[in-house]
Specification:
- By secondary structure, this protein is an alpha+beta fold.
- It has 2 domains: about 5-75, Orthogonal Bundle (Arc Repressor Mutant, subunit A); about 85-165, Glutaredoxin.
- It has helices at about 5, 10-20, 35-45, 50-60, 65-75, 95, 100-110, 155-165, 175-180; strands at about 85-90, 125-130, 140-145, 145-150.
- Strands 2-1-3-4 form a 4-stranded mixed beta sheet, with helices on one face.
- The chain is elongated, with a radius of gyration of 18 Å.
- The structure holds FE2/S2 (inorganic) cluster.
- FE2/S2 (inorganic) cluster binds near residues 131, 134 and 138.
């Protein structure tokens, strides 16, 4: 059995992937690549392994390289394992001017990790990203589908305590479900 055969969507995710693919005309199934990668990431532990990307390629009947190219381009796709809570702090101009670097440093100190790392207990991964379109409420961060804005060190402490206690994995999955009823 090869790696592609070992990975398979759950029944629910399979049904959702089929609905997503049907949005596009026959022969244009590749257009479903981005939502399918989100679905695969949510389904398989918050990141995209090579076998997972190969599985998506097999569903869409495209070459694996076409999936790798897209998955490695966008910061919302993780090509390595991440913690339950993926903290993505915006570091672009407006957020930086409003203290993003201090927020990043505060998170690093609080969690005992550097940007790009995961805490040893697997609860948090810290990532920095470019503009998330919420410049008016800078500095801000994203965790799963939620934005946390006008950040201060106190707000960050509160948020990390809450996320750490919940034990839930952050995910975009809900929005895919909401949009595909
Ligand atoms: S610069 Fe941070 S959201 Fe736009």
């Amino acid at each position: 059995m090869n790696e592609v055969e070992k990975i398979e969507f759950s029944k629910e995710a399979k049904a959702l992937s089929e609905r997503i693919i049907k949005r596009y005309p026959e022969g244009r199934q590749k257009s479903a690549l981005l939502p399918l990668l989100h679905l695969a990431q949510a389904e398989f532990g918050g990141w995209l392994s090579v076998p997972t990307m190969d599985y998506v390629a097999s569903i869409l009947n495209i070459k694996p390289i076409e999936v790798y190219e897209v998955a490695s381009f966008y910061s919302m796709f993780n090509l390595n394992p991440v913690g339950n809570c993926l903290i993505e702090v915006c570091r672009t101009g407006p957020c930086m001017l409003r203290g993003a670097n201090d927020i990043i440093e505060h998170i690093e100190n609080k969690l005992g990790i550097k940007e790009g790392e995961t805490t040893p207990d697997g609860k948090f991964t810290l990532k920095t990203v470019e503009c998330l379109g919420s410049c008016g409420t800078a500095p801000m961060l994203q965790c799963g589908a939620d934005y946390h804005e006008n950040l201060t060190n106190e707000k960050v402490d509160e948020l990390l305590d809450k996320l750490g206690a919940s034990g839930k994995r952050s995910s975009y999955m809900w929005s895919l479900k909401e949009n595909n009823r």
